[in-house]
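Retro notes (design track)

What went well: tokenization of the new backbones is finally stable.
What didn't: we kept losing track of which sequence belonged to which structure.
Fix going forward: every design gets posted as structure first, then sequence, in one message. First example under the new rule, 163 residues:
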């Protein structure tokens, strides 16, 4: 009985197995045409911001520094010398993507990509680079609008819930 069951399972697997691959492939859409059509309107966004960093870090690792208005600040400063709390600002970088929505240079991206950025660089798929200016942002919905000085850019059309 065991021998027949294993032959039956093997036979079913040999017949049904090859049929499942085309069915599985048919379920996934082909994104090739989509990328060819809209790929040039997708941009790379890199930002630079300056962040202050502690020179020596907190007194004890994992424990934040003692606030200056705390009664313990002077006591611990006497033993651990916290005079020079901050060193020079060091650049912090961020990387993200966005979509060109206006041929005159308007780009939509996420707010967290450009949050606190001092410089925003936009790179197109044709390797052109532009310095972007922030036009507006909303932290709550995590969206930002950028503008670059360029014309005749490839665009994507924003969808609507009624479409």
């Amino acid at each position: 009985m065991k021998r027949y069951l294993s032959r039956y399972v093997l036979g079913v697997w040999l017949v049904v197995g090859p049929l499942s691959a085309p069915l599985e492939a048919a379920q996934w859409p082909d994104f090739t045409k989509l990328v060819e059509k809209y790929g040039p309107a997708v941009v790379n966004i890199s930002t630079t911001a300056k962040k202050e960093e502690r020179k020596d870090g907190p007194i004890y690792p994992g424990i934040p520094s003692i606030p200056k208005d705390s009664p313990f600040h002077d006591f611990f400063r006497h033993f651990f010398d916290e005079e020079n709390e901050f060193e020079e600002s060091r650049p912090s970088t961020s990387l993200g993507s966005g979509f060109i929505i206006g041929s005159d240079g308007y780009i939509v991206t996420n707010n967290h990509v450009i949050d606190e950025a001092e410089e925003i660089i936009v790179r197109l798929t044709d390797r052109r680079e532009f310095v972007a200016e922030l036009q507006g942002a909303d932290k709550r919905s995590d969206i930002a609008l950028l503008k670059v000085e360029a014309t005749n850019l490839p665009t994507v059309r924003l969808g609507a819930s009624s479409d």
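Added context from the reviewer: The mean pLDDT is 80.
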